[in-house]
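Can you give me the bound-state structure? Components:
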Amino acid sequence: MEIKDVENLAELARIKLSEEEKKELLSDMDSILGYIKQIEEVKVEDVDTEYKTYNVWRADGGDGREFDKDLITSQFPDSKDGFLKVKKIL
Amino acid sequence: MIDLEKLTIKEARKKLDAKEFSAVELAQAYLDEIEKKNKELNAYLEVFDDVLDQAKEADELIKKGESYPLLGIPLVIKDVILIKGRRVSAASKMLENYVASYDATVIKKLKGQGAIFLGRANTDEFAMGGSTENSAYGPSKNPHDIARVPGGSSGGPVVAVSANMALGALGSDTGGSIRLPSAFCGTVGLKPTYGRVSRYGLIAMGSSLDCIGPIAKNTEDAEIIYQAIHGYDALDSTSIKDDTYKVTEEKKVIGVPWSLVNSPGVDEKIKENFKDTVKKLEGLGYKIEDISLKNLDTALATYYIIMPAEASTNLARFDGVRYGLHKDGENLLEDYMLSKGSGFGKEVRRRILLGTYVLSHGYYDAYYGKAQMVRSLLKKEFTKAFSQVDLILTPTSPIPPWKIGEKTDPVAVWLADIFTVTANMVGLPAISLPSGYMEVGGNKLPIGIQFMATHGAEDLLLEVGKSFEQA
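Here's the bound-state model for the whole set.
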């Protein structure tokens, strides 16, 4: 792994890093990847992943939860007329 | 004066009902201990300001003749579980001022019994770590040697219970976070079967691994809390029903993966204690069998692929838009980058980046895909093992608690999870029990053992725990 790989991952993960933090993470990642690489050696010929995905439904109608609107809106970093305010996207 | 050192939940219940002391007096006794010790041990991030009011309400109910196992019992909650109207930060700067807008299901159940919440306890940031050194608010200290870590990530709740600053606790366990600190501080910690306890209202890390469970002074107390919080919950889509797993009759056969227990990475004193433990169990009528679990030692590497993959996905939600830390930039993308950059600490960033890497194009099959296959393999191995034995016994940790700041390589800390992660990978219930002490640098440090049982067999764990404690 190189610095540019760390930069790419940080961009994908939307995390701003300083140059020093990038260097530190590069050395951490080298050590971590060196460790988890051992999984390559495991032989798994006759195993299929048995993760069956299925939906967990509930009937239409409320689920009995009640929320306090003020408690939620008071945590908006920015708001206008009780609505969450965000910067323009386009 | 209430003797907190010897007090258990069961004893406190009797005394509260017999009016030997009131819930207010009991709560006050704990508040006094916290006042005395928390500055040094840093177990609590916040002590709630309405503890005595909660206790007064409990006293009212007791006066009316009502009695529930946890009525008036002072508990501490790990800072990753939501209590409506109270702050919950996951020990992160990202959620420093976040206030929960609803009660977690486990909290609702505890409130239903009239339990007292003393406060929220320290953890590694977003429960990522094995020592509490990753908390944005400083590490908790091991009460048996304050130069050492208490283990983690549920270090705060465990220290609180261990140092008589709470009578019991709720923690969370993704790869050992209830059991490891329990072993390091001498408490009992139970990680239930995956899906047994609702995670609705738990701040998520690895959703296929996360569990909530009790921490207590002994198995009986852990059972009382477990009984209060478990059960199907429609609000957690991974929740299981009482009859999801059929529990087979106990045969008292314990399997020990000796090849792993005897490996060089396990501390000699821990091995010694483990052998004594095995003898003790034989004396109790248990039959010990050597079992081979071929892929047990690769479980850890597999875990450190699956967990970061899930964590990076779960933590994507913290973007500074709806709640939590917000740093303002030139545009929306910069808002995200700056908020995450300053909100997340080192270990959290490491895991997010690692998770992003193993899920990214070109690496997905080699890491995440392969890890899922190894996970299936592990499940098969354990199914086979549990057709031969009823319980599997290992040490909880291969090493004793280390000195705060001593381990700088992240992988070195992860290695402490070697015995605990498999229960999460396979979804099994597991319990850590105190098994004695070892002397390190003039201090007596607790040692723990871990039992795993097949899916749904918490009863077997609680039973062996109770009989082991009496031996």
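A couple of observations. Residues 19-36 of chain A form the longest helix (18 residues). The beta strands of chain A are 79-80, 83-84.
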